[in-house]
């Protein structure tokens, strides 16, 4: 079965001004969605969130840091590993995720080898 | 980290943010309240982000406390004027290092220490220098952790109004650098009276059906009860505090029975008494018994009336004579046409429709009651008790010509339909 990576992007902006209760609701949606996936078997690895900050090393060996703050709306904020029969299935699952709701996107990319070993 | 059926305690973030704001403001001064609120928000967002895929840690409160505390300490360390600021924050610890303050914050955040900071914050939010409306809004924001939009939905006010009110209140407290102190003995009664009024009004804001029945309003009631309970459990409460808590609990016991599945309001006489929360009624009764005093307040008599309703199996079986007497005591304490109106209804229910009518007639001559639709409803009620359906219908029709909000209108129309069927 193909494996996909879900790449979560953005969504921090919208939550910045949310109330504690709204933030808790979003968190609960995430935990429910991941729990569902673990139970149904399509979550291979829930993955993790990525902290803002860090660095980019460019080809000329300069280092960029300022583009990795939460201010930039398209920051990658986390990833998960998913296992489903095809892309359309993965798309449906991503639609159900809390990401679109919190103003972010989910990028879906299939793994090349799906973890297969060469004989 | 566990990976199954994650569930945070209800309102966890809302209450943790209130706890943190109370403790951090106590440590770093009212003048930093905006900064503190921002840092608490950052900590909550970080928690959400850290837990959303991996689940909630063993001790989520400690996690959030730790992050929020470090965020605020980092930003204070960046304040060049730190030494000066400490002197200003009203803590005579200019010589103390940040580390000493940090351990104080840790201590205040401990479970058994938390109520102390919250109590102090209650007295700050109900500071006599603020207007009543600001006190309520500030309490909802700071002590209950509601957001602006939630408060505006709960109080039925435009967001901008709520925002301005809270900002003004915070600004005036910060300018005066009001300290998170508990009132001295000679001030306590006075300060407590203000807190009681705020909690009473806050509960009513949530409970009053004239504003509709949004779930957020039930939460406002719950919060008023929570804060009142906190106060009752402290050495700073009085018999009046306990009576107020009893009153709130008697009302809270009926919350679920007050609306039908469509969210329409059901009046006391039509409520399914099976749905009333017996456990809350019992708790309310023990608080009321606990509130005995030689000088009972309006809270005592209002609670006594609420109790009579709660312990009666039906409208008919209610001890209306006692209720009439309690209203007399209330009117003696505070001249209020609303008390008189309710007393008249109780008189009618007790069988004295003549007295009821003459009392209502007196109210009709008052400018502040003339246009009050509930006065016509009271007339209608007494007519109904006398079996005079036609007069009752006329009174309800008159009520409809006064200012009524949409769902009250619905309620009146329902009444009219019912009466029309009787004829």
TrEMBL record, chain A:
It comes from the Bacteria. InterPro entries: Dimeric_a/b-barrel (IPR011008). Residues 98-119 are annotated as: Disordered. This is Uncharacterized protein. It comes from Gimesia aquarii. The lineage of its organism: Bacteria, Pseudomonadati, Planctomycetota, Planctomycetia, Planctomycetales.
Automatic annotation (TrEMBL), chain B:
One of its GO terms (biological process) is DNA-templated transcription initiation. It holds the Pfam family DUF6596. GO terms for molecular function: DNA binding; sigma factor activity. Residues 191-291 form the DUF6596 domain. Residues 27-80 form the RNA polymerase sigma-70 region domain. Coiled coil: none annotated. Residues 121-170 form the RNA polymerase sigma factor 70 region 4 type domain. This is RNA polymerase sigma factor. It comes from Gimesia aquarii.
């Amino acid at each position: 079965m193909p494996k996909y990576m879900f790449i979560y992007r953005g969504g921090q902006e919208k939550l910045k001004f949310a109330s504690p209760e709204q933030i808790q609701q979003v968190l609960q949606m995430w935990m429910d969605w991941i729990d569902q996936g673990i139970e149904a078997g399509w979550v291979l690895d829930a993955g993790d969130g990525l902290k803002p900050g860090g660095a980019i090393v460019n080809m000329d060996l300069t280092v960029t840091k300022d583009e990795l703050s939460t201010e930039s709306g398209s920051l990658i904020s986390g990833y998960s590993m998913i296992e489903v029969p095809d892309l359309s299935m993965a798309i449906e699952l991503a639609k159900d995720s809390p990401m679109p709701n919190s103003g972010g996107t989910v990028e879906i990319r299939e793994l090349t080898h799906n973890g297969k070993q060469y004989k | 980290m566990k990976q199954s059926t994650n569930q945070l305690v209800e309102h966890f973030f809302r209450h943790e943010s209130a706890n943190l704001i109370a403790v951090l403001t106590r440590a770093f001064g009212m003048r930093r309240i905006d900064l503190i609120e921002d840092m608490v928000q950052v900590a909550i967002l970080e928690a959400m982000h850290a837990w959303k895929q991996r689940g909630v840690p063993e001790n989520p409160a400690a996690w959030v406390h730790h992050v929020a505390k470090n965020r605020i300490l980092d930003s204070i360390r960046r304040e060049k004027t730190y030494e000066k600021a400490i002197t200003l924050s009203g803590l005579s610890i200019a010589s103390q290092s940040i580390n000493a303050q940090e351990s104080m914050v840790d201590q205040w955040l401990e479970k058994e220490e938390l109520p102390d900071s919250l109590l102090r914050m209650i007295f700050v939010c109900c500071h006599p220098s603020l207007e009543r409306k600001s006190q309520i809004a500030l309490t909802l924001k700071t002590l209950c952790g509601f957001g602006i939009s939630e408060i505006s939905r709960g109080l039925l006010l435009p967001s901008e109004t709520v925002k301005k009110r809270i900002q003004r209140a915070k600004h005036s407290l910060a300018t005066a650098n009001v300290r998170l102190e508990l009132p001295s003995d000679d001030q306590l009664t006075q300060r407590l009276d203000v807190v009681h009024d705020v909690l009473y009004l806050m509960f009513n804001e949530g409970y009053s059906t004239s504003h509709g029945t949004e779930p957020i309003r039930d939460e406002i009631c719950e919060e008023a009860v929570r804060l009142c309970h906190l106060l009752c459990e402290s050495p700073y409460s009085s018999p009046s505090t306990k009576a107020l808590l009893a009153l709130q609990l008697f009302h809270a016991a009926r919350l679920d029975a007050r609306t039908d599945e469509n969210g329409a309001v059901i009046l006391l006489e039509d409520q399914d008494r099976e749905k009333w929360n017996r456990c809350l009624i019992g708790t309310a009764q023990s608080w009321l018994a606990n509130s005995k005093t030689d000088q009972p307040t309006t809270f005592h008599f209002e609670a006594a009336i609420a109790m009579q309703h709660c312990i009666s199996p039906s409208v008919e079986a209610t001890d209306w004579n006692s209720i009439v007497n309690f209203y007399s005591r209330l009117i003696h304490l505070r001249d209020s046409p609303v008390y008189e109106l309710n007393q008249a209804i109780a008189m009618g229910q007790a069988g004295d429709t003549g007295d009821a009518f003459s009392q209502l007639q007196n109210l009709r001559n008052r400018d502040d009651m003339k246009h009050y639709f509930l006065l016509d409803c009271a007339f209608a009620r007494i007519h109904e008790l006398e079996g005079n359906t036609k007069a009752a219908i006329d009174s309800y029709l008159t009520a409809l010509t006064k200012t009524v909000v949409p769902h009250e209108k619905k309620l009146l129309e329902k009444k009219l339909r019912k009466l029309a069927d009787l004829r």
